[in-house]
Write a structure and sequence with these properties.
Layout: E1 3-11, H1 18-26, E2 33-40, H2 47-57, E3 62-66, H3 78-83, E4 91-94, E5 100-101, H4 106-116, E6 120-130, E7 136-141, E8 148-149, H5 152-158, E9 169-171, H6 180-184, H7 189-197, E10 201-213, H8 220-233
Parallel strand pairs: 1-2, 1-4, 2-3, 6-10
Antiparallel strand pairs: 4-9, 5-10, 6-7, 6-9, 8-10
Length: 235
């Protein structure tokens, strides 16, 4: 059976959280094959060791890649540069190493929709915000209060807060040759969302299927947020 979904996970100094992310991947209940691509960007803690322990337990399913020098600090979009070229799935799903999926049927629900709607380029869903200990902070990333199509105008207006990257699944072929503006952008997820929304419809599930962890200092997500802040200040 061919791989249906490639999970793109980027990790950096997330020894406290990476197990939550990986366990969320492993709990997925699907009638198709998926692969777990994890890129460790030269973590200085035990993140790589924890990933390797899981990779030994699940050979062929978990496919790690370990850097000896940090690539993000060189301006490289590590998910695009190192995980996507080795992805075999028809679809790509995202989850950073300090976030995690909460619904074991997340991938199945999203793939079922996209398989029955070939015009859909990307699918997303509601996300709950949690603190460093994984407790809810009482807020959601929830652009709508019903299942519906999301027009490109809403994605533009919402920017980086419209949806969480860990809710997204998209057709891999659409990003095989990304446009120049995506490759040159300092932050990759917002340009990617906008580009994919021009390549087909975007569908939103009004269900919480993952968690976005806030306040994790020094993590990949924290570095992305600081990069976004610099980008906003420069406008």
């Amino acid at each position: 059976m061919s791989t249906m979904v490639s999970i793109n996970c980027i990790a950096y100094n997330q020894e406290r959280y990476i197990s939550d992310a990986i366990e969320g991947f492993l709990r997925q209940q699907t009638d198709f094959e998926y692969e777990i691509l994890i890129h460790d960007d030269a973590s200085t803690d035990r993140t790589a060791d924890i990933i390797e322990d899981y990779a030994r337990q699940y050979p062929g399913l978990i496919k790690p890649l370990y850097q000896t020098e940090n690539q993000y600090s060189k301006g490289i979009k590590v998910g695009t540069a190192f995980n996507l070229p080795r992805a075999e799935g028809k679809y790509v799903a995202f989850c950073e190493g300090d976030d995690y999926w909460t619904d074991p049927e997340k991938l199945q629900k999203q793939v079922d929709y996209m398989e029955s709607h070939p015009d859909c380029s990307m699918c997303c869903h509601a996300v709950k915000l949690v603190n460093r200990e994984g407790r809810s902070v009482g807020r959601l990333i929830r652009p709508y209060h019903q299942n519906r199509l999301a027009p490109i105008e809403d994605l533009i207006m919402g920017g980086g807060t419209f949806v969480s990257i860990n809710s997204i699944i998209y057709r891999r072929e659409l990003m095989d040759s990304p446009p120049d503006f995506y490759l040159q952008a300092p932050v990759g997820d917002i340009p990617m969302l906008l580009y994919l929304s021009t390549r087909g419809t975007v569908y939103y599930f009004d269900e919480v299927m993952s968690a976005y962890r806030t306040g994790v200092s020094g993590s990949w997500t924290d570095r992305i947020n600081r990069s976004r802040a610099k980008e906003i200040d420069a406008r």
